[in-house]
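retry 2 of 3: previous attempt timed out while embedding manganese (II) ion. Reduced batch size to 1 and resubmitted. Inputs unchanged:
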Amino acid sequence: MSITDKDIPQIEKLKELISKSRNVVITCHLSPDGDALGSSLGLKHVLSCLGIECRVITPDCPPQSLSFLPGYNDVMPLSRYETLVRSHVNRADLIFCLDYNELKRVDRLAPYIEASPARKIMIDHHLHPATEGFDVQISHPEISSTCALLYKVICAMGLDEYITKDAAECIYTGMMTDTGNFSYNSNDPDLYLAISDLLERGIDKDQIYRQAMNVRSENSIRLNSYALLEKLEVFPEYHAALICITRDEANRFGYKKGDTEGLVNVPLSIPGVVYSCYLRDEEDYVKVSMRSVGDFPVNKLCKEHFGGGGHLNAAGGEFHDGDMHKCAELFKSLMPENLSLITKE
Ligand code: 5GP
Ligand code: MN
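retry 2 succeeded.
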């Protein structure tokens, strides 16, 4: 999958806007993951080489598990630096919106971005991109990560000489985490050409894997084990699985953000299970996380019933109409009708 003719004018425009900009703000979605933060920091490293003042601003704090990313300590979460963030966003001449398709995904940061006079650039790979509000929009839902798309955009702008080792580490991280270490959405040959180039720039992919995907606290291992032993429900007749972790249960294991990353994927290893749902208490709602295999559209399910969205095989949403029990009941009540979405192989 490549950048097409339709992107060329957008890329030219972007190149020109970058050349005229002095203050750039780069933003990514709430609860930044490896792709969101990797693309943001990767772009920051590239633009910094051009002498551009660049700030990575996130709606909330990025997870500790990504602290190995070069530039992590300079990330400015709105939740911590409200006044400073507001002033940076206000005086930016260019704002990048990376790895999200609509401003809703940056939560409380959205009104600041909207109010800023800066030009807005979306580079993203989620379905259904917003149709207005952006001066440049490069949206490719068929590309597995924003980092993979960003790499192509940087090369198409002729800025590849500025992909330093630091930038390469950040960009590789998103390519890896959004494909589960190249175990899904990962059949694009271009991806491996890009990786080969990033390796030439000095990254240690095995070390990045260990740091990003293979570090877990004891609490996290125990919480995940508990979830699978005691809380996993499998519905073979509906090809579905469900895991619910309440706030009390999470607290018992000293839950920290990211501790159950990947948990929702585990039930998909069971033959016959086509989609999996994980529910977790947030401050004032239930967070819904879903994964699927094949062409079962969890994004449709999340959009229609949980106010969310995402990708065909990885999506999420929020439930605001009651407690976790009620949310689980809703999920279960949808299972019979979801059978029609399952294609027999
Ligand atoms: P996760 O399950 O890792 O939180 O999210 C998986 C994917 O689902 C994300 O990359 C994002 O595309 C999508 N997603 C998760 N939560 C939400 C949400 O609340 N709203 C929307 N629109 N998408 C979400
Ligand atoms: Mn992504």
